[in-house]
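Data availability (excerpt). The following record was deposited with the supplementary files.
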Amino acid sequence: MQGSKLYVGNLSYTVTSEQLSSLFSGYGEVKQVSIIEGRGFGFIEMSSTSEAEKAKEALDGSDFQGRNLRVNEARPMQNNKGRDSRGGGRSGGQRRY
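Predicted structure:
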């Protein structure tokens, strides 16, 4: 593991930042919590790589509010250059205007 930021998926849509912070604080200092509303995932930044690794190992697949969490190292955001500005990204087929 190279970073201290984790992706947390399969969250209940009702989970709060405070609840997630409390869960992860058992594995080290939580620096930041970001929940993507209405999407069922978020990001946790721990204070060190070793703490992030401990949290990942302990919490990936664990039950939290009736759902099995998916915890992985967060990947850097990808640049969307070259994507169809109409939101497509589709190739082939007929274009709809």
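Summary of structural features: The mean pLDDT is 88.
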